[in-house]
Amino acid sequence: MTSKGFHYPLAFTTLACPDWSWEQTVQKAVEYGYQGLELRGVEGEMDLTKAAPFTGNRLSATKRELKRLPRSTPTSVRGSATSIWLTS
After folding, report:
1. What DSSP letter does each residue of 24-80 carry, written as one string?
2. What are the pLDDT tens digits along the chain (88 aa)?
3. What's the pTM value of the predicted model, to 2 decimals?
4. Could you tell me if residue 44 is inside a domain?
5. Does residue 32 sit within a domain?
6. Is residue 86 a part of any domain in this protein?
7. Domain range spanning residue 13?
8. Is 87 a domain residue?
9. By C-alpha distance, which of 77, 23, 22, 14 is closest to 46?
10. Rounded to the nearest 5°, which phi and psi values hold at 61?
11. Could you give the CA distance from residue 83 to residue 88 in angstroms, rounded to a whole number?
């Protein structure tokens, strides 16, 4: 998809598959030809600060895993979605 010569990478949101494992999410993104992920729910956890791939020792492993992807599959995290509660 382009607009005036600018390429927009195609990504999908994990909101559609919040119960997938992190490994399955990355695998499917590569398999289906996406260039990125928008993170919303991972491994059944909607709060990314509590999702296992992004906490403790697994955070470093998750970063390494993304860096190890072949250059021909430029899958990366393109966004992080949140839910917020506004109260008065």
Report:
1. HHHHHHHHTT-SEEEES-BTTBS-TTTSGGGSHHHHHHHHHHHHHS-TTS--EEEEE
2. 555 676 777 888 888 898 999 889 888 888 888 888 888 889 999 888 889 998 998 999 888 877 777 665 556 666 776 666 677 6
3. 0.70
4. yes
5. yes
6. no
7. 7-80
8. no
9. 14
10. -65, -40
11. 17
